[in-house]
Amino acid sequence: MNTDRTRPAGRRDRTRPGTVPTRRTPHRPRPPLRPHQWFAERLLAVLSGQRPVHWMLGHTIGEAYDQLAKLAPASPLGAGCRRPVVRACHGTQPATGVVEAFASIATGERVRAMAFRLEQGPDLRWRCAAVDLGGERLPAVR
Q: How far apart are the C-alpha atoms of 106 and 112, rounded to whole Å?
């Protein structure tokens, strides 16, 4: 069957009505989160009041759990009516098995900074060793 005669005038593609065109680029699944990105999301959930502090019990070492227990009751990242989100998260590896990271957290028009340190144990699991919230509250830049 000649499709040139059944195509509307001016139409140049070869697809027929009712067919679904194939995708030219394959769908790529979202890459897995890096350890510092994963911890930023978890820390945000605790410090915004979405999750209880004990949710991080197996993911912290040293003073980090105590720091979270002091910070969490005030929900320092949960102020406002909008749900906070991690806008950016970057990490550096100053030594093998150590990641020092910072994240910017946006809640509506406000942006806060969160810094944390991760250490990899002998079981190769990452654990949070320190958490710090700092900086003035600044308006978000769009």
A: 6
d(CA 125, CA 85): 25
Q: Residues 116, 128: contact at Cβ < 8 Å?
A: yes
- Give the tens place of pLDDT for each residue, 40-78: 999 999 999 999 999 999 999 999 999 999 999 888 888
* Backbone φ/ψ region at 57: left (φ over 0), alpha (ψ -120 to 50), beta: alpha
The predicted-structure confidence for 93-116, as pLDDT tens digits, reads as follows 999 999 999 999 998 888 899 999
pLDDT digits (tens, 9 = 90+) for 71-86: 998 888 886 678 899 9
Q: What ranges make up the beta strands (E) of the chain?
A: 85-95, 98-107, 110-120, 126-139
Give the CA distances from residue 131 to residues 1, 49, 64, 110, 128, in Å, rounded to whole numbers and listed in that order: 69, 16, 6, 20, 8
